[in-house]
Amino acid sequence: MAFSDFLKKIGIGSTPDSVVGIDIGSSSIKVVQLKKERGVAKLETYGEVALGPYAGMAVGQSTSLPPEKLVEAIKDLFKEVNINATSASLSVPLRASLLKLIEVPKIEERNLDQMVSLEARKYIPVPITEVALDWMIVPSHEYSETQTSSMPTAEGEARKIPKMEVLIVAIHKSIISAYGEIINKLGLKATPLEIETFSASRANLSNELNAVAILDLGASASRLLIVDYGVAKASHVISKGAQDITLSLQKSLGLSFAEAEEAKRRLGAIGKVEGGDLNAVISPTLEYIFYEAQKILIAYQKKYSRPITKVILTGGGAQLKGIVVLAKKEMEVEVEIGNSFKKIEVPAIMEKALAENGSGFGVAAGLALRGLQ
User: Fold this and answer.
1) What pLDDT was estimated at residue 10?
2) Which residues of 31-43 are buried (b: 16+ CB within 10 A; e: fewer)?
3) Share of the chain above pLDDT 70, in %
4) CB 18 within 8 A of CB 87
5) How far apart are CA 25 and CA 327, in angstroms?
């Protein structure tokens, strides 16, 4: 079962001939339009628009725009890159959803609905009637045999109770409603919603059996997802992202936000500007992100006795020059930059550029791939 095939209750839609994946981030919106020909997903167009200017802010700054402003930005982007698909797929931010792996007694799947609903209440901070809830049974493998817990019998002896893992997903209905409003105002048909980390995983992973991690470096936050045997097993939101790097440069070097953002994108962590060494300013933020990520990796490896074989960096922050060296040093694991277009047929003239600079489009590409399924 693919990453989000089990999100059957969230959204409706049919398989279109052409679909646009829309990734609404905190600082920009990215789109990827694909079509399917002879069973192959082909790139038609893609693009990005910064959201800061729509709020009177600088490019690269995070903002929270109302639906009507988001629609305006999306329409502008559609016009700029010639989006003509009539079907769209959108993602839900990880911070606006619940993704939780739980253990429950092993029972028949048809009897799980009530048990999962009761268990989910422990983790959902709002009434269960206010969320769309779904779940899937996580297949057990050699490394993760059905676990057991001890329960005393009437005679005082411990009896082993078989356990199994269930992945639950909850999305607030207000989020679904807001995204539905955006789709309606754009005049598009909607394919199912899914959580953004699943989209990035679909674009960057290819049926790996090993345990791997996707670290999505967004503007306002970073998101970590561990995938093992093709199943999402752990997730975590880290409170710092690429914008924090810009803010550090702005404060330390006395630059405007726009100047700091330009220096970050042009030089990354390996350049110097008047007033300081970028690496010395940038490193503390990245070290925090990688330290938090490493804690999740270590906890997972300890629990399942499964090594994380590599970490794939995605998102706009993954384009920072010198980031792979810093990531390997801090997390002590193999690190690579994601290629969001690896499963998509692209024009030959664009292959190298997209392989090197397309990591920020993982969510949008994964959404479009999902829409074509």
Assistant:
1) 40
2) bbbbbbeeeebbb
3) 89
4) yes
5) 23
pTM of the model: 0.85
Q: Which CATH number is 18-245+279-372 given?
A: 3.30.420.380
Closest to 20 in 3D by CA, of 63, 107, 78, 65: 78
Query: Tell me, what DSSP letter sits at residue 188?
Result: -
Distance between CA 282 and CA 268 in Å, rounded?
8
CB-CB contact of 30 with 47 (8 Å): yes
**Which tokens hold the place of 261?**
């953002």
- Quote the CA–CA distance of 311 and 206 in Å, as a whole number: 14
Contact between 315 and 218 under an 8 Å Cβ cutoff? The reply is: yes
- Tokens representing 161? 């109770």
Distance (Å, rounded) from C-alpha 94 to C-alpha 98? 7
Task: Report the distance separating Cα 62 and Cα 52, nearest Å.
Answer: 7
Per-residue pLDDT, 154: 57
- Number of separate helices (H) and strands (E) present in the chain: 10, 17
Place of tokens 């503007």: 219
Report whether 369 contacts 344 (CB < 8 A). Answer: yes
- Kindly tell me if the per-residue pLDDT of 247 is higher than 70: yes
Report the 10 Å Cβ neighbour count for 19: 30
Contact 338, 203 (CB under 8 A): yes
Ordered by start, the domain boundaries in the chain are 18-245+279-372
Q: How far apart are CA 314 and CA 364, in angstroms?
A: 12
Torsion 95-99-100-101 (CA) sign: negative
Among 352, 347, 343, 350, CA closest to 373: 343
Tell me the backbone φ, ψ of residue 112, rounded to 5 degrees: -85, -25
Instruction: Identify whether the C-beta of residue 74 lies closer than 8 Å to the C-beta of residue 88.
Output: no
Polymer length in residues for the chain: 373
